Amino acid sequence: MTDRSNTIPSTPNRLLVLEDDKPIAQRIIGEAESIGVRCRSALTLEDFARHYKELDPNLIVLDVVIGSGDASQAVEFLAKNRSTAAIFVISGYSTRIAGTIAGMGRDCGLMIADTINKNADGIRRLMASIRSYMVR
Asked: What is the distance between the alpha carbons of residues 112 and 99, in angstroms, rounded to a whole number?
């Protein structure tokens, strides 16, 4: 996904999406950009770490399974960097797995905003949750 920050008006809302399913990532980014959120997406944990440092996001979407890894590595990274972002954990497998990652994040002091399934209703719910955590 390309960073289009140079074409998006300055905004206090910055979303970083860690999602290795490109169509899902594109849908989330497209909907977030349409409401004025500056966005970046990462397909790998390495890209996620780099984009995090560049973007300083206040909103983060974490997919539970990323390639051969999982979101626990991203949670550890966010805790180490003392993230204050609202974090949304999404899963195409099971909300139980997302709940485990969310619990890990809470135990690390992170602000887990929601756990959401990646079906069509879940993406709508994700966008509603993102709107509720946006800086006004």
From this structure: 10
